[in-house]
Give the backbone structure.
Amino acid sequence: MSVSRLQGFGLGLRTEHYADFANPDAPLPDALKPDWLEILSENYLVPGGKPLYHLDRIRLDYPMVMHGVSMSIGSADPLNLDYLRALKSLAARIEPAWVSDHLCWTGVDHRNLHDLLPMPYTEAALQHLCPRIAQVQDLLQRALVLENVSSYVRFAADEMSEAEFVAELLRRSGAKLLLDVNNVYVSSRNHGFDARAYIDLMPAAQVVQIHLAGHEDRGDIVIDTHDQAVCDAVWQLYAYTLLKLGERPTMIERDDAIPPLAELLRELDQARRMVKTVGAGKLTRTQTESA
């Protein structure tokens, strides 16, 4: 299965910015305007009400992608078919370029732990995930896009690296990848692996989107908070990713301490400028280590 074509630079649609996107009397400057928006799927699964009103209004002006946190593709529990049918209905309503969720599990025994928990990187986990991905893709009638998550612990049973696991899962399942560059950086710091080597293993043909975000650096541990601007080290890794994989639809994620829209638009413009710099051949792989 394939995904629709989408280009350029996006932002996550947050309630704090509904008025900015929907106000015809205060149009956003074309030079900074996002090309598309990413919605949090769960915010719009309840029929009726203000969220869907705003969504329908803003969708008139912006292409969208859907991003969820509740699929729990890696759980031992059966997939929630009611949830998947609701996703399919929402997708029919807004016609997103793709539907994504996280390569993780969020609970077991029908209990939601409200966190994105990493998979064990084992052959058994690969064999567990592939038929579940196929089930989701069959129900949604579209390719599933999965995001790599940040992590803070490892499983003793791991048989391969995270990058090897992700690449093999994409090969076997036909799923696509939402490559979160910040999550690669966070996990590389927490577990001591080479973030650039991780990027090297990602299959370029299956990477359909990139996330950039901020985090909290406590020195001995890095926490994926999405409440700060993208740091220099993540920008450097993004530049390396562009050199390795080519340009991909890219967005800035901010989920807490959300600033005025103008501030996020300026940050997103940094991604635009970096793509132009890399595309013009003004940045080499060596220079990404100090860019």
